[in-house]
Fold Cyclic AMP receptor protein.
Amino acid sequence: MGFVTARALSLLVRAPIFQGAEDADLQPLAGLATFSRLSRGQHLFQAGQTIESLYIVASGSVRVYRLSRGGRRELTLHVEGPHQVVAGGAAFQSRAIYPAHAQALHSPTEMLTLPVDAVRHAVFNTPTLAQAVIAYFARRQAELLGRLDTLIFSELGERLAAYLLEHAAAPHALPTNSDLAALLGTVPELISRKLGEFYRLGLIVLERRTVRVSDAAELARLAGGIAREAGH
């Protein structure tokens, strides 16, 4: 097994979309994988393009977003980090076009690329892969509904505290205030103000755009029900 194939297989077995699948079922896909790098702001794909590849983040992060009808506002749908598939659901639809735009948030962001036809064939003809993919999309739907509830019924402080807790395991490179505002359903000015408040309270340490959680217990208290639902 070559280096690229071995590295791809290591990534695929850790990707949530293939959780529970057998290594032997993923090895043929790993043999078709390639890796590429994106600079910050570079697009992985744009809405309306035909889907020819399935992308999984190897390192860095990718923002998936949509534009308003006038093209003046952006709504971040989600941010995908390492091991996460980007817009995977669309790859299995009959009308296989990307429903949104995707661009790298960090430089470099490395992507694993698989030919989508090969992925479909493998999933449709391999029971363990099919079970893994179905379970993954069921989890994603539940997460999406949870996020919708969060945006509608919680305060910004709760949402930001929950976001910081979600990335508390290690120092985290924050998206820009505009990107974070779009992700949390607010405006950049309020994000800046709330981050400053958390910093002054000693809940986080900020060094340029890298944040480290210093008081997870207080953030969990501020996050309230959001943190409890997420298991923090």
